């Protein structure tokens, strides 16, 4: 990836600067808070430790840290970094790791829904909590290892590419940049799109089957299919929002950032990029009854009685 920070300090009116700072700060705080609620909810209630929810937990963790990093992005928008070269390199390093972990988790979520909808009978044996934990762990380890290689020079000699005091720049080689964009964007989006289309076809087939068969013996199976289709719709919303939010960033990265867009446009692209981490928990709140119920228990301090709390969370609406 290439740095998208403008090369010159941006001069804005005080009102615009205040509005921008307040907006970014608010989104950052809400992103951290909402994703923290997701982490607490899934971690606390043992009965929510399903394979699908463990993947959501991994996504919430990466979004949680990206919410923190959004505060530092405010400094880059004005191109006046005063935290030093080491913190600059560390910021980009962590940013790329958490972003890649989020992208990797989205792929795992797509695979989970693919198996659940396309191979429902094999799903309980193929997708287990232990296997999901292993996959999530590997995803994070690979992200750390990959970006350690990509940003090795910047980590070894922080600030080597800065041209003046207060600048925060990291540079990736041409080959490294191509590999990074391919692995972090082109490949994942291709895989997610193909699997989503396949699941959509199967989901439509299931919907027709559910309408055309009314035998009593098949009611249970149809109920299961309906539940999986509802979960697929929720995941589809997450995937679509994800693609909409990150595509502008990677498109700018591919064509060369600063030479193409104005500073204000780059600021908007970066804001949209981080906005995805804020929108994910809102999607959960709108689509998952267990999330709304667990949040209600958490904010009203009713999570002490674990038994009754889990019963309330898992109760059907």
Quick tags:
11 helices, 317 residues, TAAR, transmembrane helix, Rhopdopsin 7-helix transmembrane proteins, globular
CATH class descriptor name: Mainly Alpha
Number of helices: 11
Helix content: over 70%
Secondary-structure element string: HHHHHHHHHHH
Q: How is the CATH topology named?
A: Rhopdopsin 7-helix transmembrane proteins
CATH architecture type: Up-down Bundle
Keywords: Cell membrane, G-protein coupled receptor, Membrane, Receptor, Transducer, Transmembrane, Transmembrane helix
Protein name: G-protein coupled receptors family 1 profile domain-containing protein
Subcellular location: Cell membrane
GO molecular function, one term: trace-amine receptor activity
How would you describe this protein?
The chain is mostly helical and 317 residues long. It has a single domain (14-314), classed as Rhopdopsin 7-helix transmembrane proteins, CATH 1.20.1070. The protein contains eleven helices and no strands. The protein has helices spanning 14-44, 51-77, 85-118, 123-126, 129-150, 152-156, 174-212, 219-255, 263-287, 289-299, 306-314. Helix 3 packs antiparallel against helix 5 (129-150). The chain is globular. The N and C termini lie far apart (45 Å). 35% of the residues are buried. Mean pLDDT is 77; it is low at 1-9 and 214-224.
Kindly summarize this structure in a few lines.
The protein has 317 residues and is mainly α. The chain has a single domain (14-314), classed as Rhopdopsin 7-helix transmembrane proteins, CATH 1.20.1070. It has helices spanning 14-44, 51-77, 85-118, 123-126, 129-150, 152-156, 174-212, 219-255, 263-287, 289-299, 306-314.
